[in-house]
Design a protein that fits this description.
The complex is a heterodimer of chains A (298) and B (208). With 298 residues, chain A is of the alpha+beta class. Chain A is built from 9 helices and 11 strands. A 4-stranded mixed beta sheet of chain A has the order 9-2-11-10. Chain B is mainly alpha-helical and 208 residues long. Chain B has helices at residues 13-37, 51-76, 84-97, 112-134, 146-176, 181-185, 191-197, 199-206, and strands at 8-9, 188-189. In chain B, helix 7 (191-197) crosses helix 8. The longest helix of chain B is centred in the C-terminal third of the chain and has 31 residues, at 146-176. The chains are: A alpha+beta (298), B mainly alpha (208).
């Protein structure tokens, strides 16, 4: 790869090692849910930078608009109204989108070489020119993120603005966020920033405030600061302990070499059986018997 | 075309055509399916016009195969009920594979192994068809919850693998037992072939 900032660390349907000589900084986006006011500037910036225009949909009775991610809406604000005795009514707003897993389920499931790649900086990107439209990425993703376009049958999702990051800019949503709820930098720096904020939140009474960087997928390159980190599901169903499903791991792991070995064994077994035991021919004895029987008929 | 008037008719033209449409579909499905299953075999997509065409064509070929398989299944179903003699044959199959078929029990039109294959293929086609519909992203996947789709993907891969192995055995058996393939090419077998491998069927056909 010409640009060091786009060095590839993992490539879908590729079993050999990627180039590893250069070590790049791991990046991350930190979304501080407690600072988000739900203005949707990030959605707008995403559409503008990526030249996307979703269709005007319909209102589902909440502020969620559009109501779900699509091939044109790579990020969507999700608004959850949560009531508890302790804190009364809370409006928990989460910017949903690709989490850029360290161990991406989409990439593991993808059968098309190079359709999904993970850059050395941690960003997971879809290369639509290699995408065959099978939807296995949807099957593999623990966060229900990829969307298949109805127009071209290609899979789309947040790129973490890999094109901007490659040239030293922050993602469009980060640039536009008016409250500083979204930050971008090295993963290490983002974790430090999160720690500071979590201490603050704890001082203010959010005793369960914490960082969402789920270990089940090796950590993510999009992390959340949650004021209720003990219950991620409050935030419109954010999974508490996301992992690549065991069925997907089996299908894309052990099953592959085992199936190849089984098929090869059957084919070679046949060849060597023939070579070593010889064909099963009709015996001369029976041929003579049948000849006689036919003679008898005449 | 009659090669020898004393030959025995094993399959009529319609049965043969039915078998070969199913067989051709199977070969196309195995090649395209393996291409999408293992990265090392992805180049097989070139046979179908690339990755996208492979993804588009595979499920449609599957539907065609299912249609023809169902017809074939009901055509041959009544000839494939397992009997005690068939189980006895299965128990002794190893002797035959080792080269000695003298102690094998007399078989009708199909032996125990062929019958077991028949029922396995029926099961495999059912599982592959249902799981194939579930993982057919373009038209059907959105009707199913994600857990079902994931299980469908695993079952599709597992049954496809075992079925490919079973068909390799099926084809090898036809090659190994000389004089068999002609039954599926032009429909007849020699009387000696029938007497050696399917004696009960031979008696039924010739009255001897």
């Amino acid at each position: 790869m010409a640009l060091q900032s786009l060095d590839i660390a993992k490539r879908s349907a590729t079993t050999t090692e990627p180039p590893q000589a250069r070590k790049t900084l791991e990046v991350a986006k930190l979304i501080d849910v407690s600072k988000c006011i739900g203005c949707k500037a990030c959605q707008v910036a995403c559409m503008q930078w990526n030249d996307l225009r979703d269709e005007v949909g319909s209102c589902g009775g909440t502020y969620d608009n559009p109501t779900d991610m699509t091939d044109q809406s790579w990020t969507v604000m999700r608004y959850a109204e949560v009531e508890s005795e302790e804190r009364g009514l809370e409006w928990l707003i989460r910017k949903d989108g690709c989490m850029h897993c360290e161990d991406p389920g989409c990439l593991k499931a993808c059968p098309a070489p190079g359709a999904i790649i993970k850059y050395a900086n941690g960003i997971v990107d879809f290369h639509q020119e290699n995408c065959i439209g099978c939807g296995y990425c949807v099957t593999g993703c623990p966060f229900n993120v990829p969307r298949i376009s109805k127009k071209d049958s290609k899979a789309y999702k947040c790129t973490l603005c890999s094109d901007r990051v490659a040239v030293g800019l922050e993602p469009a949503c980060v640039k536009v966020c008016p409250t500083g709820s979204i930050s971008f930098g090295s993963k290490e720096d983002m974790k430090e920033l999160a720690d500071e904020r979590i201490t603050e939140l704890k001082e203010r009474g959010f005793k369960n405030a914490g960082l969402y960087d789920p270990a089940g997928v090796g950590g993510t390159h999009v992390m959340y600061v949650l004021n209720h980190a003990d219950k991620p599901s409050l935030y419109s169903g954010l999974p508490a302990d996301p992992t690549i499903a065991p069925t997907v791991s089996l299908w894309k792991g052990f099953a592959k070499p085992l199936a190849m070995a089984g098929i090869a064994a059957a084919a070679l077994g046949g060849l060597f059986h023939y070579v070593m035991k010889g064909p099963n021919e009709v015996s001369k004895e029976i041929e003579a018997e049948v000849e006689k029987e036919l003679e008898g008929e005449k | 075309m009659i090669r020898d008037p004393s030959d025995l008719q094993r399959y009529n033209a319609s049965e043969r055509a039915n078998h070969w449409v199913t067989g051709i579909c199977f070969i196309l499905l195995a090649l395209s399916g393996l291409a999408l299953f293992h990265p090392a075999l992805f180049p097989l997509t070139s046979l179908f016009g690339g990755g996208v065409w492979t993804r588009i064509l595979h499920p449609f070929i599957g539907v065609i195969m299912m249609l023809f398989f169902v017809v074939m299944f009901f055509r041959f179903k009544r000839l494939n009920h397992m009997t005690d003699t068939d189980w006895e044959w299965v128990k002794r199959a190893k002797e035959m594979v080792d080269g000695d078929d003298h102690n094998m029990p007399e078989m009708g039109k199909y032996n125990g192994g062929q019958k077991l294959l028949f029922w396995f293929l029926g099961l495999a086609m059912l599982v592959l068809f249902v799981s194939g519909i579930i993982i057919w992203r373009a038209y059907f996947s959105h009707y199913f919850p994600i857990g079902v789709i994931r299980t469908g993907a695993v079952l599709h891969a597992v049954f496809a693998t075992v079925m490919i192995i079973a068909i390799i055995v099926h084809v090898y058996a036809a090659i190994w037992v000389r004089g068999t393939i002609r039954a599926m090419l032009y429909g007849t077998v020699t009387r000696a072939w029938a007497k050696q491998h399917h004696r009960a069927w031979y008696r039924q056909m010739t009255g001897k």
